[in-house]
Amino acid sequence: MHPFAYLNRSFHESDLAPQKCLVCSVLPSCNAKSLSDRRQSYNETVYTHRNTRYKLINDNPYEHDEMDTTSLPPNPELTPHAHAAILSEALPYMQRYDQQVVVVKYGGHAMGTADLAECFAKDIVLLEQSSVKPVVVHGGGPQIGNLLKRLNIQSEFTGGLRVTDAATMEVVEMVLAGAINKQIVAEINRFGGRACGISGKDADLMTARKLERRVRDEATGEERIIDLGFVGEPETVNPRLLEVITDGDFIPVVAPLGASREGVTYNINGDTFAGALATAMKAKRLLLLTDVPGVLDKNGQLIEKLRVSEARALIADGTISGGMIPKVQSCIEVVEGGVEGVVIINGKVPHAVLIELFTEHGAGTLIERD
Q1: SS3 for 252?
Q2: SS3 labels along the chain
Q3: At 286, which helix (H) or strand (E)?
Q4: Dihedral angle sign, alpha carbons of residues 270, 273, 276, 277
Q5: 208 DSSP assignment
Q6: Less Cβ around it within 10 Å: N or C end of the chain?
Q7: Is 20 left (phi over 0), alpha (psi -120 to 50) or beta?
Q8: CA pair distance 329, 311, nearest whole angstrom
Q9: H/E element holding 82?
Q10: Which is more confidently placed, 25 or 264?
Q11: ∠66-68-73 over CA atoms, to 5°?
Q12: Residue 292: its pLDDT value, please?
């Protein structure tokens, strides 16, 4: 079944089996009398299903990998005409992104199960086949943590932040530029894509500098600089390598590592790395796949769209808090740097990338210019 089928809102009476409600397989007790009633019932069922899944993830933020997030409502029966209508609805969105760069940050927490990895790979291949130029940047925090634990390498923290020493940096590079990168490449290639794995160190794609982080001493109120070791931030970006790869109909999969002018390797925050690439490549969209549905309001409901000024106001009044603050601030910087829009998406939703780009519904919170 085509992934758009669950989202279609344009069924015709002729597409329905005689005397059979479109959604009776989902709502056996459905008593809808008209097509519009049936369509509304079906949309509400899908919304409720997805909303329940989001609520479960928020209530159990550390147990989402154990949840069944790939289940969908039973498949409604559609005729070939309905399938064709669904495909045709994607046309304006395909035209919008034709030959446009879309950077996708595939977060370590969003990787989840094998089924979700398969959905993601298919989405990326379909984008490239539709003349979009996808650039995948991946994270790997949980996987790095797991390997450090297996190797019995203890992590040091200062000011509440992890310090990346030389031993840890070896593991970081091994996981990011090695295991995870090649797994994603292999999965994309398995479904007909032509992916190639690189890091920011290749062809001087991204020159990094050591990240300076300041913290305030609660006792004295004074600020001090803490040393996080081999943690860096983008200094310069040369997107030429990515342009060559995408122009050749290949799909770059990029590990967020960079080297300084002196040749020192640094680990760079994945969101920051992806934002720097999106800005340098003048991307149409930056998608941040994570394990939350997006930005939530004070009632815990998803905010589908935010202007930059609105996002800043929500940070100021405390609606946006905790770990979402730096993520949204990073989105604002990217938008102000020239990217048309940044979307925070729940990567645990199957085919979230296609839902966001090729349907009218969207799959998270879009942040765009005022």
Answers
A1: strand
A2: CCCCHHHCCCCCHHHCCCCCCCCCCCCCCCCCCCHHHHHHHHHHHHHHHHHHHHHHHHHCCCCHHHCCCCCCCCCCCCCHHHHHHHHHHCHHHHHHCCCCEEEEEECHHHHCCHHHHHHHHHHHHHHHHCCCEEEEEECCHHHHHHHHHHCCCCCEEECCEEEECHHHHHHHHHHHHHHHHHHHHHHHHHCCCCEEEEECCHHHCEEEEECCEEEECCCCCCEEEECCECEEEEEEECCHHHHHHHHCCCEEEEECEEECCCCCEEEECHHHHHHHHHHHCCCCEEEEEECCCCCECCCCCECCEEEHHHHHHHHHCCCCCCCHHHHHHHHHHHHHCCCCEEEEEECCCCCHHHHHHHCCCCCEEEEECC
A3: strand 285-290
A4: negative
A5: E
A6: C
A7: beta
A8: 8
A9: helix 80-89
A10: 264
A11: 170
A12: 87
CA distance 143 to 175: 7
Tell me what percent of the residues of the chain surpass a pLDDT of 70.
Answer: 78
Instruction: Say which residue, 14 or 202, is predicted with more confidence.
Output: 202
Cβ pair 195, 185 in contact under 8 A: yes
CB atoms closer than 10 angstroms to residue 213: 14
In the chain, the N- to C-terminal Cα span, in Å, equals: 38
Q: What is the pLDDT of residues 3-29, one digit of tens each?
A: 333 333 333 333 333 333 333 333 333
**pLDDT confidence of residue 77:** 63
Assess contact for 336 and 308: CB atoms under 8 A: yes
